[in-house]
Amino acid sequence: MTTTSSNSSSSQKARKLKKHPSQTYIEESQNIILLLNRQGHITYASPALTQLMGYVPEELLGRALDSLAPRDESRILRIILKEVQPSPGRTLKAEVVLRCKDNTTRRFEGSLTNLLEVPGIEALLYTLSPVREGRLAPSTGWHNMGATDHFVQFYEHDDFLLHSLSGYVAAGLAANEGCIVIASAEHLRKLNELLQTQGWDIDAASKEGTYVTAEATEALSWFVKGEKLDEKRFSRIFGGLIEKTAINRPHVRVYGEMVALLWAEGKQTTAIQLEDCWNNLQHSICPFSLFCAYPIRSFQGDMHSPSFETICHQHSQVIPEESYTSLQSPDERLRAITHLQQQALSLWGEIAERKQAEEKLRISEVRYRRLFEASKDGILILHPHSGSITDANPAIAQLLGRSQEELIGQDIRQVLLSRESTKAETFLEELQQKRFLHYDSLFLPHPDGTPQYLECVCNLYKVDEHELIQCNIRDITERKQAEKALRKAEARLRFLAESMPQKVFIARPDGSIDYVNPQWYDFTGLPAEELLGWSWLQCLHPDDKEATLQSWLHALKSGEPLEIEHRFRRANGVYCWHISRAIPIRDDTGQITTWIGSTTDIDEQKQLEERKNAFISMASHELKTPVTSLKGFTQILQRRLGKNADSQTLMFLNRMDSQLKKLTALITDLLDISKIEIGKLSFHKEPLDLDTLVQETVQNVQEISSTHHIQLQGSTNARIYGDRDRLEQVLINLLTNAMKYSPHADTVIIRLDRQDNKARIAVQDFGIGIAPEHHHNIFDRFYRVIDSEEQTYPGLGIGLYITRTIIERHEGQLWLESQKDKGSTFYVTLPLYD
Amino acid sequence: MTSTGKKVLIVDDDPDITLALAAMLEDEGYDVTTIDRGEYLEQLPEQNMPDVILLDMLLSGVDGREIARRLKQQPATRHIPILMLSAHPNAAQEAEKAGADDFLAKPFELDELLNKVALHLHSSA
Fold first, then answer.
1. Transferase: is it a keyword of this entry (chain A) (predicted)?
2. pTM check: above 0.80
3. Which CATH architecture has domain A146-317?
4. Cα–Cα distance between B19 and A639 in angstroms, integer?
5. Which among A630, A636, A671 has CB closest to B89?
6. How far apart are CA A126 and CA A769, in angstroms?
């Protein structure tokens, strides 16, 4: 036979027990084997439990045996326990009915044996074999655990041995039995400590002679010289000691490590001799029980198997045969059960450790739980193999419109992937493979019917050796809908951009172009890459490049919209006038993210306008020529007839002259308009004394006016920088307007002063006034106040437009204050020249 | 105003304007000669140079500005004051550029014409 044949058990972690072959047998047994403690609580259950009753062994640990039976059957178990528990070695058999996990019941033949007194076991052994039809109950009884029992224990760790030993001794002391312990100094010390912590007064017991100890090496030296053993000396010494201890005591318990010591020293023959001596002693003197323990490491390998068997054979039989019929020797059976108990103990240790860990875990669990409950993301915990939901947080319940209770136990694939059959099919497999899954968009309508998109991340991971799946689920409906809307809007915009006649471009904040619509390719004949970035500049007319760049860079820097006219080269090489406009698009923070622009072909318009302006320019010239000669002749006549003509003739001539002046002014205005239109109104600015200019102009206007007196008030004392003729034109326009629109008044006031470091001119009349709704438009081209109740005043509606343009070109301002029927005051301000 | 006998040359292709100008100046006692094409200026008799030239800017044939330039380049005519007339916009600057001494916009006031002519005769005398 072999024991722990391979690894050195000492190198293994404490409590992690290597499976013993006989233990393996038990674990593979068709019978359920339970170990119970003195109180009848289960401390070990063999794996057959799962197959026969559906429980996982761990589930039953710590449970009372009678709790396994249905209520009306549990009494039988309690009776059996009550009978067996006080009697070491006692066995009782009875048919029992037990409740399986699935709540069905099953009938077993149970055999309960009291092994509480067996060192290393100290348990009640309960074997349950399922009752089959026609099976005959075994009839062989247990051997009574007699007074001369010889126990053997194979141990791996001192802790285990000392636990057994202290139990053995304590039971003896409790029954007032004599206890003789022959052990290594270290074991003795530890045993004493252990007994003291259990409340035994060791010193008193030693004094009384109840508790006798001897150091094993020393004791050996009394009767062993080298490998030679003196049996007579042994019998005399130990026989005497036992008999002496037995006086007035019901029984004597002996524990010996001398055999083990010899064995460990390699004196196998001597060890076996000593075993014989002990056996002989048991038969020759008063009865005593003997407990021997062997460290399993001493029996490694097959080398000592025969000797080992010899030792085993020398032990008395205490383990019922019929429970383990396939285990040939009682020693194997004993060892098998010992191992079970070792495992059971280690299991308790583990449980204790686990409880500690669980406490820590509980704290972190509480923490985790809070996160879990408070999380805005939906979280599901799944069983790793079935995919069924084991936990769900409130957020997911809300998201799915179902209660947490409803969700638990459901299959994730039906809950979340009901619309995604392909994903549902591969869900678990894929997760097992990759341990991670990400669905960026699951369509899952809310139970109330509203469409809903979810993003789902699943992780498969281990917590305390247990795998679980965690799924975090987020509602991305809003984002999804925004994306959808965006795509729709984008498609719409793209359609617009591609179907409109205008050229469209989109630029980055740095001004480089990153989109042009197909109209650009059609017009320039160039592919997109030769238009994107800054390449489009090559299509501009060389004369327009600098101005375009300047305007564009200014717009980019200031964030002001762009508007510029420039020429782009058509595929055939001809340049065409375009107007380009661009506006910035900003994000929430006001940062410009992009520029959108359009470029419109205005070439035809431009040409038309140029022709129009050329026409007006030519027309004004052609009109002026006859006026010049007319005026010339008129003036000659005035002069020649001056002294001799009658007053009426002279008056007619004066009228002719003043009408010719009006005609000249109209022609000049027309020409100015066309100049303004094409941006060619030119200025010849020079430093001017404004007060003088005003005085001269007032004088000139006064000369030709017979109806109004122009009052000049105040002064600006200002030098300004401007075009004399143009400013004169402004003053003439304002003064003639003032007179024209105050036909019933006889005064116009022109006031000079300074305001905010600017020169200010105010021209005030006492005429018909202008209603406020017209104030804004009055400076517009061709705008005329139309009032059906009023008499009409002749004019082209361009005077104030030209005036405004001139003032603006002098960086000045022009505005009016007026009320209907209360007259008007026009204000002009001009910057000072220093 | 003592202008008697001073020679004024008028160059304009509009006969009515020429007529009016001539009448105005003759009424003031000037010795007026009129021509309607600039080219004729190149054959000006050396002994009978005008004291002032009234030159229209937009002449048919050689442009008034070109004529002004040529006159101002020739030593014999460089000193003669040129008063340029035009109904054209921006003509004042053009006249200055071409080398004219003064400019009068059409239509003009009689007094303004007489003042300018007198001014140039006086300064060149």
1. yes
2. no
3. 3-Layer(aba) Sandwich (3.40)
4. 16
5. A671
6. 121
